[in-house]
Write a structure and sequence with these properties.
- 19% of the residues lie in helices and 36% in strands.
- It has nine helices and 20 strands.
- It starts with 9 loop residues before the first strand and ends in a 9-residue tail after the last strand.
- The strands form two sheets. It has an eight-stranded antiparallel β-sheet with strand order 3-8-7-6-1-2-4-5.
- The longest helix has 20 residues.
- The protein is of the alpha+beta class.
- A hairpin with a 6-residue loop joins strand 14 and strand 15.
Amino acid sequence: MTLSTAAAGAWVVLGGVHLLNRTAPRRADEPLVFVRVAPQEVSRPSTTVVIGWNTLGTCSAEALRADGTRIGSVRIDGKDLFPDAIAGAALRELIGAEAAPGLVPLCYLAEHPGGYHAYAQIRFHPEDACFVRTTSEPVGRGPVEALRWLDPVLAAHHASSTALNNHRRCFRKHFEGTELEYKYTLDPAPDIWAAAMELLKALRDGELEGWRPEYREEFQAHHTENHLFEVTGPASEVGYASFVPTVTAGHVLKRKWFAEDAFARREELVYGIDVTPDGFEAYLRGELGLQVRAMPPFQRVRYDIQCESMRTGHVYGIFLDRCTLLADPTVVLSQCELEYLRTRGVLDQDQDEVLHEMERVNGWLRNYVATRGWAAEHTFHSKLSFLRDAVAAQPALGTVGFRAGPATHPSPNRARRAARATVPSASEGA
């Protein structure tokens, strides 16, 4: 039986897990299984492919040995391939009991002019699997069963094995240390829980073509207190510093540098800040040498919807949040924010594509919130501007923040050794 047909072919290729992690040498007699599937790329080629086993229907599966000799074939329903992430009965019968326990999806293989593009398996579950493209150009021209693609595909996998074989290590961050964000001020403010669930469903239903909720990271909930200080000097440090308590102990210090609200702002998070609230201002002044103005503390409830472009692997966050002043809960800011978070993939990319894609997502989001009467146009209105406006309207609010006093904080040397990291903004903070 010839696996190739006149139409462009697509397969999920199964084999021993040792072919991915090199825990055992390759053998000429070990089985490879080609499960013929409908094309799964949203563009040709894509960066990411996600396959739900129960969406495949009945598939033909052909087993070959690694030297190309045929073992046999079987018809199998996709949902029966890997119940409990273990090779199902039909696969075990096809390749034998000895080989079956280590059988996993190796890659998604797509026929292209000049050969095949391969997408390495990076996440594998009983319900589905996620694959990331590792070939920059098609490889292995010829019939798929000739296996000319196998060596270059395995070599590409091994070249990026640190990223591909470790949980969530296949992400990179473009524009490192810079937050890219559009905001919509929601007025009248909806119930943000209901709004988040509705928006998530829209993404699941494919309303934003080419995007889907981020694989197994589609939704997060946050509920935090924020103690924010406007940084007024030195001039190079202007922006704000916000303390957010962590679940364990201490605080995260979020710094943003900007003279005015804008799409792109420098951002940094510092973890492990061992300071009590009455010492926040003293810490900023004494340890960091900043001139600051305390703003009224606020509570933030935020629901994060994370979506990824299957074409590029770029992941964007759509956040719905509600901020209320602790001293006056009737002072409310409700926003929908769109932010670039990270990129799934191992191949080099033009980072400017992030900006082009973000414009497309923003166009869809603008129409989405406008048709519901929540907002007509995006803005860059920051939490700092919200607090400034609140204090201008009620000057007494400017006295309710924690003022300088006896501070409990680390020594200068200890502060400099605090864990420091710039991370995607789908995290605690303002």
